[in-house]
Amino acid sequence: FTNGVAKFDLKDYIAWFSDPKPYGVIYWASHGDLVADGAAEHFYIFLGKSVGKPGDSYKKLVQAFDKYLASQLTGRYKSVADTLALAADGSIVAPAEFIKKIKGDFSLSLIYVDACVSTAEPSFKEAFGARAYVGFRGSPSAYLTSSLAEDFFTALSRKTRSAHEAYDYAKNSTADKASG
Protein backbone atom coordinates (compact mmCIF):
# COMPACT_ATOMS: atom_id res chain seq x y z
CA PHE A 1 0.00 0.00 0.00
CA THR A 2 1.35 3.39 -0.88
CA ASN A 3 -0.65 6.45 0.07
CA GLY A 4 -1.53 8.38 -3.04
CA VAL A 5 -0.80 5.41 -5.33
CA ALA A 6 -3.11 2.59 -4.27
CA LYS A 7 -6.60 4.04 -3.95
CA PHE A 8 -8.06 1.57 -1.48
CA ASP A 9 -11.26 2.12 0.41
CA LEU A 10 -11.56 0.72 3.91
CA LYS A 11 -13.40 -2.38 2.77
CA ASP A 12 -10.52 -3.06 0.33
CA TYR A 13 -7.99 -2.93 3.17
CA ILE A 14 -10.08 -5.24 5.30
CA ALA A 15 -10.82 -7.72 2.52
CA TRP A 16 -7.16 -7.82 1.51
CA PHE A 17 -5.82 -8.26 5.05
CA SER A 18 -8.45 -10.77 6.13
CA ASP A 19 -7.75 -13.13 3.24
CA PRO A 20 -7.20 -16.52 4.93
CA LYS A 21 -4.15 -17.34 2.77
CA PRO A 22 -0.86 -16.59 4.52
CA TYR A 23 1.18 -13.73 3.11
CA GLY A 24 4.86 -13.65 2.18
CA VAL A 25 5.98 -10.03 2.13
CA ILE A 26 3.90 -6.96 2.89
CA TYR A 27 5.40 -3.54 2.17
CA TRP A 28 3.20 -0.85 3.66
CA ALA A 29 4.27 2.72 2.83
CA SER A 30 2.33 5.34 4.71
CA HIS A 31 2.62 7.84 7.55
CA GLY A 32 2.60 6.97 11.20
CA ASP A 33 2.34 8.81 14.49
CA LEU A 34 2.29 8.16 18.21
CA VAL A 35 -0.77 9.40 20.04
CA ALA A 36 -0.84 9.76 23.82
CA ASP A 37 -3.71 8.01 25.57
CA GLY A 38 -3.33 8.74 29.25
CA ALA A 39 0.09 7.48 30.31
CA ALA A 40 0.58 5.29 27.23
CA GLU A 41 1.41 6.08 23.63
CA HIS A 42 -0.12 4.14 20.75
CA PHE A 43 0.99 3.90 17.14
CA TYR A 44 -1.50 4.84 14.43
CA ILE A 45 -0.96 4.33 10.71
CA PHE A 46 -2.63 6.59 8.16
CA LEU A 47 -4.83 4.69 5.72
CA GLY A 48 -4.54 7.20 2.89
CA LYS A 49 -8.14 8.31 3.08
CA SER A 50 -9.36 11.70 4.26
CA VAL A 51 -12.88 12.85 4.88
CA GLY A 52 -14.06 16.43 4.61
CA LYS A 53 -12.18 19.39 3.14
CA PRO A 54 -9.32 21.61 4.36
CA GLY A 55 -10.69 24.15 6.80
CA ASP A 56 -13.69 22.05 7.85
CA SER A 57 -14.52 22.21 11.54
CA TYR A 58 -13.74 19.14 13.60
CA LYS A 59 -17.49 18.61 14.11
CA LYS A 60 -18.00 18.55 10.33
CA LEU A 61 -15.05 16.14 9.93
CA VAL A 62 -16.55 13.79 12.54
CA GLN A 63 -19.88 13.84 10.70
CA ALA A 64 -18.13 13.05 7.39
CA PHE A 65 -16.10 10.29 9.12
CA ASP A 66 -19.24 8.67 10.56
CA LYS A 67 -21.01 8.87 7.19
CA TYR A 68 -18.02 7.34 5.39
CA LEU A 69 -17.74 4.49 7.90
CA ALA A 70 -21.45 3.76 7.57
CA SER A 71 -21.10 3.55 3.78
CA GLN A 72 -17.95 1.40 3.81
CA LEU A 73 -18.24 -0.86 6.81
CA THR A 74 -21.30 -3.00 6.41
CA GLY A 75 -21.83 -6.69 7.07
CA ARG A 76 -18.65 -8.47 8.15
CA TYR A 77 -16.65 -5.24 7.94
CA LYS A 78 -18.72 -3.47 10.60
CA SER A 79 -16.75 -5.03 13.47
CA VAL A 80 -13.65 -2.93 12.79
CA ALA A 81 -15.42 0.45 12.74
CA ASP A 82 -14.80 1.06 16.43
CA THR A 83 -11.05 0.57 15.99
CA LEU A 84 -10.59 3.42 13.50
CA ALA A 85 -9.93 7.02 14.46
CA LEU A 86 -9.99 10.44 12.90
CA ALA A 87 -6.89 12.64 12.85
CA ALA A 88 -7.26 16.41 13.25
CA ASP A 89 -6.68 16.92 9.49
CA GLY A 90 -9.52 14.54 8.57
CA SER A 91 -7.30 11.53 7.81
CA ILE A 92 -8.55 8.10 8.82
CA VAL A 93 -6.01 6.30 10.99
CA ALA A 94 -5.80 2.76 12.33
CA PRO A 95 -4.22 1.39 15.51
CA ALA A 96 -2.98 -2.12 16.20
CA GLU A 97 -6.51 -3.18 17.15
CA PHE A 98 -7.51 -2.74 13.48
CA ILE A 99 -4.98 -5.40 12.44
CA LYS A 100 -6.07 -7.73 15.25
CA LYS A 101 -9.76 -7.52 14.36
CA ILE A 102 -9.35 -8.34 10.68
CA LYS A 103 -7.59 -11.59 11.60
CA GLY A 104 -5.28 -12.19 8.65
CA ASP A 105 -2.62 -14.92 8.83
CA PHE A 106 0.75 -13.16 9.02
CA SER A 107 2.60 -15.90 10.94
CA LEU A 108 4.97 -16.61 8.04
CA SER A 109 5.12 -13.02 6.77
CA LEU A 110 7.73 -10.33 6.58
CA ILE A 111 6.00 -7.01 7.30
CA TYR A 112 7.87 -3.87 6.22
CA VAL A 113 6.11 -0.74 7.49
CA ASP A 114 7.63 2.34 5.88
CA ALA A 115 6.10 4.84 8.30
CA CYS A 116 7.47 7.10 11.01
CA VAL A 117 7.61 5.58 14.51
CA SER A 118 6.25 2.22 13.33
CA THR A 119 8.44 0.40 15.87
CA ALA A 120 8.39 3.03 18.64
CA GLU A 121 5.94 0.96 20.66
CA PRO A 122 5.33 -2.77 20.17
CA SER A 123 1.55 -3.06 19.71
CA PHE A 124 1.49 -2.75 15.90
CA LYS A 125 4.24 -5.33 15.45
CA GLU A 126 2.55 -7.66 17.94
CA ALA A 127 -0.84 -7.27 16.22
CA PHE A 128 0.55 -8.82 13.05
CA GLY A 129 2.23 -11.73 14.86
CA ALA A 130 4.57 -11.85 11.88
CA ARG A 131 7.72 -13.87 11.50
CA ALA A 132 9.66 -10.63 10.84
CA TYR A 133 8.72 -6.96 11.18
CA VAL A 134 10.74 -3.98 9.97
CA GLY A 135 9.90 -0.36 10.70
CA PHE A 136 11.30 2.86 12.11
CA ARG A 137 11.68 4.13 15.70
CA GLY A 138 11.92 7.77 14.67
CA SER A 139 10.93 10.02 11.79
CA PRO A 140 13.42 9.37 8.97
CA SER A 141 13.65 11.37 5.77
CA ALA A 142 11.98 10.13 2.59
CA TYR A 143 15.44 9.65 1.05
CA LEU A 144 16.49 7.40 3.92
CA THR A 145 13.34 5.28 3.86
CA SER A 146 13.34 4.75 0.09
CA SER A 147 17.08 3.97 0.02
CA LEU A 148 16.81 1.58 2.95
CA ALA A 149 13.81 -0.21 1.38
CA GLU A 150 15.63 -0.59 -1.95
CA ASP A 151 18.78 -1.97 -0.29
CA PHE A 152 16.75 -4.20 2.05
CA PHE A 153 14.68 -5.86 -0.66
CA THR A 154 17.69 -6.19 -2.95
CA ALA A 155 19.61 -7.96 -0.18
CA LEU A 156 16.58 -10.05 0.76
CA SER A 157 16.31 -11.37 -2.79
CA ARG A 158 19.47 -13.40 -2.16
CA LYS A 159 18.30 -16.77 -0.85
CA THR A 160 21.19 -16.97 1.58
CA ARG A 161 20.19 -13.84 3.54
CA SER A 162 17.73 -13.78 6.40
CA ALA A 163 15.56 -10.72 7.04
CA HIS A 164 17.92 -9.72 9.87
CA GLU A 165 20.99 -10.01 7.61
CA ALA A 166 19.23 -8.09 4.82
CA TYR A 167 18.34 -5.32 7.27
CA ASP A 168 21.92 -5.08 8.55
CA TYR A 169 23.19 -4.91 4.97
CA ALA A 170 20.64 -2.23 4.03
CA LYS A 171 21.37 -0.15 7.12
CA ASN A 172 25.13 -0.17 6.40
CA SER A 173 24.68 0.40 2.67
CA THR A 174 22.28 3.31 3.22
CA ALA A 175 24.62 4.86 5.80
CA ASP A 176 27.50 4.62 3.31
CA LYS A 177 25.43 6.37 0.62
CA ALA A 178 24.36 9.12 3.02
CA SER A 179 27.91 9.83 4.17
CA GLY A 180 29.59 9.41 0.85
Task: Break the fold down into its secondary structure elements and pairings.
Blueprint: H1 10-17, E1 25-29, E2 32-37, E3 40-50, H2 58-72, E4 85-86, E5 91-94, H3 96-102, E6 110-114, H4 123-128, E7 132-134, H5 142-156, H6 163-179
Parallel strand pairs: 1-6, 6-7
Antiparallel strand pairs: 2-3, 3-5, 4-5
Helix pairs in contact: 5-6
Give a brief description.
With 180 residues, the chain is of the alpha/beta class.
Structure overview:
A hairpin with a 2-residue loop joins β2 (32-37) and β3 (40-50). It is globular, with a radius of gyration of 17 Å. Residues 1-6 have low confidence and may be disordered. The chain is α/β, with parallel strands linked by helices and 180 residues long. The strands form two sheets. A four-stranded antiparallel sheet has the order 2-3-5-4. The protein has a three-stranded parallel sheet with strand order 1-6-7, covered by helices on one side. α5 (142-156) crosses α6. 38% of the residues lie in helices and 20% in strands. The longest helix is centred in the last third of the chain and has 17 residues, at 163-179. It contains six helices and seven strands, in the order αβββαββαβαβαα.
